[in-house]
Amino acid sequence: MPRPARGLFGARAALPVADFIQDWAVDPHTATADDLQGAAAHAAAPPATAPSGPWHGRITGIASEWSPHFPGYLAGAIEAAALGVANLSTTESTCGR
After folding, report:
1. CB under 8 Å, gap of 24 or more: what pairs does 82-90 form?
2. Where does residue 75 fall: left (phi above 0), alpha (psi -120 to 50 degrees), or beta otherwise?
3. How far apart are CA 49 and CA 62, in angstroms?
4. 57, 91 Cβ separation under 8 angstroms
5. Mean pLDDT of the chain
6. Which residues in 28-64 are b (16+ Cβ under 10 Å) and which e?
7. Sign of the Cα pseudo-torsion (89, 94, 96, 97, in order)
8. Predicted local confidence at residue 94, as pLDDT
9. In terms of C-beta density within 10 A (0-12 exposed, 13-18 middle, 19 or more buried), how is residue 79 classed?
10. For every residue of the chain, which 3-state class applies, written as one string?
11. Weakest mean pLDDT among 14-18, 51-55, 57-61, 65-69
């Protein structure tokens, strides 16, 4: 067991009795039949900026959920953050700040 787990759960966490692999898609208390259908991928990312309204030009999503290519993954968080910084740089230069 990794050292952080021992720190969180105590000395007994270093000696597990068993481990399990759980397929949540087939667990009747977690999933529905609809979970077994579909593309088996994360949903498409929404726009990272507000197209209109009071937040237009003022807020940019930079978490993985706003990644155009890897939504829901670590690579998506990196991509969305990079795009957000690029957007901020563009916005600041066009606003004269």
Report:
1. 83/48, 84/48, 84/60, 87/48, 87/49, 87/60, 88/60
2. alpha
3. 10
4. yes
5. 83
6. eeeeeeeeeeeeeeeeebeebbeeeeeeeeeebbbeb
7. negative
8. 59
9. buried
10. CCHHHHHHHCHHHHCCCCCCCCCHHHCCCCCCHHHHCCCCCCCCCCCCECCCCCCCCCCECCCHHHCCCCCCCHHHHHHHHHHHHHHHHHHHHHHCC
11. 14-18
Tokens of 36: 């077994």
Q: Are 59 and 49 in contact (CB under 8 A)?
A: yes
Token pair listed for 61: 């999503």
Q: Which two tokens stand for residue 60?
A: 């940019």
Q: Read off the pLDDT band of 61 (50, 70, 90).
A: very high
- For residue 48, pLDDT over 60 is answered with yes
